[in-house]
Amino acid sequence: MRKVEYYILIMCVLLFFNATSQQLTPPIQNYSSLQYNAASQNWDIKVDEQGIVYAANNKGLLSFDGQRWELYPLKSGSIIRSVLPHQGKIYTGSYKEFGYWEKDIKGVMQYQSLISLLGEYELQSEEFWQILAYNDAIYFRSFGAIYRYDGKTIYPVQQVVSRGMTVFNDRLVIALEEKGLFYLEENGNLEPLQNQDVLLDRSIVDILEYKESLLICTRDGLFLYDEKGSRAFPDRKLNAVLAGLELNHLIKNSDNELVFGTVKSGILHYNGGTGEIASYSRNEGLQNNTVLAMTQKNGKVWLGLDNGIDAIHLDSPIKFYTDDSGELGSVYDLAFHCDEVYLASNTGVYKLEKEDFKLLPDAEGHSWNLEAHNNVLYSNHNSGTYKIINDDFVPIDVRTGSFEIVPIDREQYLIANYTGIDFYDDELKQIKRLNGINFPVKQLLFENPGTLWAADAYEGIYRIGINQRGDSTTFVKKVSADRQMGNYSARIFKINGQIAVLTNEKWYRYNVFTDGLELLREWHEFNGNRLLAVDNGLFWFINSAGNTLKITDFKETELVVSSKMLNNRTVKDHERLVKRNDSIYYITLHDGFARLNLHELYSMRDNEYLSTPVIQELYDVEQNYDLTATPHISSKNAREVTVLAGLPVSDAIALKYELIGSDSEPVVGEVVDGIIRFQNLPHDEYKLQLSAVSSQNADPVLTSFQFVVDPPWYLQNYMKFMYFLLLLGVLGLIFWINRIKLQKHRRLLRLKYQQEHEERMNNLEKERLIHEITMKRKELANSTMMAAKKNEVLMEIQGELNKDRNKFSNEYRLKHIMSKINRAIKDKDEWKVFETNFNELHEDFFKDLLEKYPKLSNKDLKLCSYLKMNLTSKEIAPLMGISVRGVEVHRYRLRKKMNLDSTENLTNFLIANF
Predict the structure, then answer these.
(1) How far is residue 870's CA from residue 888's CA, in Å, rounded to a whole number?
(2) Of 216, 244, 470, 836, which has the highest C-beta tally within 10 A?
(3) Amino acid 356: pLDDT
(4) Rounded Cα gap, residues 614 and 52, in angstroms
């Protein structure tokens, strides 16, 4: 009987895993040891109140602030086995060691060991596997003892072999090895729980409080304990599944949800309200099947694995189907037909079955589209157009590949293909090419029964008239929105009976009155966003990058599915949205598809949780700064300022920053890997504002931090005071210099005035002297001329007397008269007067003349003086008392004495040289 039950149990487990092998999985974020740069194994994992994740790693304590991983190793290099963030401290336990980590004022993590508080008590070979906060105390549990730390002292409260520890009914409960459950009092006393016979002799794996009961996970199954005692968990299916697994941990995701961690099979997610069980292992995206630790925060479960750390968002409104083999390729379309799921990809058309996907026979190659018309599924394929009948690929037209098939009526269709448009009659099995269209057509849309719109696969939009049957065109007209740029990547839509066109990243509408396209200004904010679908008044847009989906009714409703939520896996420019029902929609991806629950997305929007950004560290090229005060950074060190910022785990999709200075334009950007670097910041007072960006356009959660870049030393306040003093000194010096210059200028003016006055006086004196000299010259000339006249008269008288000499009776008297006349002519006093006056006018004349010609006689000097005055021989003769002939002879002799050339004028010589 036991053997039969065992086989039945094994079959249930196998059936369960087969049924869930291809289930849709929630988003799973993998963090490998290469990403967090530590060891592979993570023995414990917790999330603090802020949302920062801490993991007990083989290399030390790991922390993740949503942007960046940090490793804090112990000095001993020991493996950290347990971790608990509590009231700003992170308690850890390792081999013969426990203590806490705390950030200092500069944001640097520091470790404080608590072993010294044990005093003389010596630890055995113990490793601490669990830490729990209870009643203002911290309890450290090893396999051999439990220690209590009250903030000041630490001591062992019980030395027992325990397997778990939790709080139940506001009391501390521990699970002893094969002895059941006990209340642990603060004094160390153990009190067994009543009515737990079913738990005795069982190996307990984990315990926790669940729905006012104590949930006990054992190697043999799952049990509950409450005031009625202990009993097996009421869900037999869950117990049957758990019995075939090697459980390791148990956590509560919500009041109705449990998550079980296993050693070899990943995790199980159990919904107590619906009874649904889902398993997630390596097949569904986990890095490793051995779950060493688990914790949860806001619907996201964090797993410490034997190889890496994973985060799985169990409450996500989006679930994924992923092909890890690569065989499926990029999915271009998805269709539900006859209760089956078909996928069109770049490798072929597949049918999705419970266990796997299957390529349809002869369906290899790129398939663009899947459409069901008249209860028949059609495939637009790279090699032609096909029907899918009983999973067979039945060709309709294999002359060329096609993009789309559009019904005219129940049996007639238009096929947009690589070379034009074909009319297809399914009843007659006839295909006819529409005339006038010889270009590839990617999209077709009926404006009305007689007018068709076609989008060229490359650069055109056409409006086409067709006859009543639909097998011939009446006109083909190219419609252009921008004649200069063309119409690239054009898409056409029919919205509320109007034709809308997206081309060149802008939205246009067709105006029937002008027969042209005009800007659709109401959709200006959605330029660059392609319309995927219109359903129940909701418009589904996806941006040109293919990573953000917006859902709006253009009124109050606006939902956003970010690239992060879609794991950046959409097929760019070929995204396809498929409606399943009023709430469930499917989106094609590169390696599968995503299922979106619209009701859950609404709930997520209403319950979106945004964490508060944190500033972890601020440092420059030389030092870290105190985060509890306003840091002052020197201008020299501000050439590179680094801020480590975090966005603890939440529903935020990005962390943005804005640096605001009082004298400069704000600097904005997005934080990447938790590092913000500013270079060459000018001196100013700055405010760094971090904002957690909502996925649903809710108001961001902000954190601000202020710091100051001090001015350089030459702009410091004391230097400004020095500059002020220097300015005063310079002004004083300028005043003093100007005063000295003014005094000097005054002296110069006085001196100049004095000089000018003296010069005027000298000029006046000179003029006076010149006048005097002129007068003296005139007087000398006059007196000389008068003397000459006098002598000339005397000489004439003397000549007349000589002529009448014989007439004089008294010869003696005549001689006496002649003698007086001679004395009068040769009057020495007269000469002395002349000489005196002459020397006043011509100083040193005689001296200079005698120095050069010492042999000159007085008579020669006299002749020279007369020649100096520029007197003629006729004027000189009476002055010397000789004849003119005598003067000429005397001049001749004088020339000889002076050795003058006969050609040189004697008078000019004397005037020029003496």
Answers:
(1) 14
(2) 216
(3) 82
(4) 10
Residue 791 lies in a domain: yes
**97 close to 79: Cβ distance less than 8 angstroms:** no
DSSP assignment of 178-228: TTEEEEE-TTS-EEEPSS-GGGTT--EEEEEEETTEEEEEETTEEEEEETT
* Whether the predicted pLDDT of 92 surpasses 90: yes
Burial (CB count within 10 angstroms: exposed 0-12, middle 13-18, buried 19+), residue 627: buried
Residue 20, pLDDT > 60, answer no
Please give the angle made by the CA atoms of 545, 700 and 614, to the nearest 5 degrees. Answer: 105
Does residue 853 register a pLDDT over 70?
yes
- 291 against 767, higher pLDDT: 291
Name the pTM for this structure.
Answer: 0.76
pLDDT band for 11, please (50, 70, 90 cuts).
very low
787 pLDDT higher than 70:
no
Answer for the pair 793, 800: CB distance below 8 angstroms, yes or no: no
Which 8-state DSSP code applies to residue 537?
Answer: T
DSSP assignment of 597-648, as one string?
Answer: EHHHHHHHHHT---PPPEEEEEE-SS-B--TTS--EE-TTGGGEEEEEEE--
Give me the sheet containing 632-633, strands edge to edge.
632-633, 701-709, 684-693, 654-661, 664-670
Per-residue b or e along 492-518, where b marks 16 or more CB atoms closer than 10 Å to that residue's CB: bbeeeeebbbbbbebbbbbeeeeeebe
3-state secondary structure of 522: helix
User: How high does pLDDT run on average in the chain?
Assistant: 87
Give percent helix, percent strand, percent coil of the chain, each to the nearest 5.
25, 40, 35
Length of the chain in terms of residues written: 914
The confidence band for 771, taking pLDDT boundaries of 50, 70 and 90, is confident
**Of 10-14, 346-350, 379-383, 724-728, where does mean pLDDT reach its minimum?**
10-14
> Within 13 Å, how many C-alpha atoms sit on residue 560's CB side?
17
pLDDT-derived band at 14 (thresholds 50, 70, 90) equals very low
Query: Are 234 and 112 contained in the same domain?
Result: yes
Does 866 lie in the same domain as 774?
no
> Which helix H or strand E contains 134, and what residues bound it?
strand 128-134
Concatenated DSSP letters for 143-161? SS-EEEE-SS-EEEEE---
Strands 491-495 vs 558-561: parallel, antiparallel or unpaired: unpaired
Write down which residue in 808, 838, 868 finishes a domain.
838
Indicate whether 652 and 723 sit together in one domain. no
Please give the order of strands across the beta sheet that includes 577-579.
318-322, 592-597, 584-589, 577-579
Residue that is last in its domain, among 509, 527, 545: 527
| Edge-to-edge strand ranges of the sheet holding 89-94 | 80-86, 89-94, 97-103, 109-113
- For 454-480, b where at least 16 C-beta lie within 10 A, e where not — what string? bbbbebbbbbbebeeebbebeebeebb
Gyration radius of the chain's alpha carbons: 61
Q: In what order do the strands lie in the sheet with 60-64?
A: 42-47, 53-57, 60-64, 69-72
Q: Please check whether residue 584 is in contact with residue 595, taking contact to mean a CB–CB distance below 8 angstroms.
A: yes
pLDDT digits (tens, 9 = 90+) for 872-912: 888 777 777 777 788 788 888 888 888 888 778 877 887 77
Give me the amino acid identity at 693. Answer: V
- CA distances 417 to 273, 386, 410, 653, Å, are 51, 12, 21, 40
Residues 107 and 27 placed together within one structural domain of the fold? yes
What is d(CA 121, CA 132) in angstroms, rounded to the nearest whole number?
22
* Helix, strand or coil, per DSSP, at residue 650: coil
* Residues 500 and 629 both lie in one domain: no
Cα–Cα distance measured from residue 27 to residue 562, given in angstroms and rounded to the nearest whole number: 13
The predicted structure's pLDDT at residue 123: 86
Q: Which of the pair, 716 or 239, is modelled with greater confidence?
A: 239
- 644 is in which domain, residue-wise? 614-715
Residue 801 has pLDDT above 80, yes or no: no
Number of domains, the chain: 5
Better-predicted residue by pLDDT, 216 or 841: 216
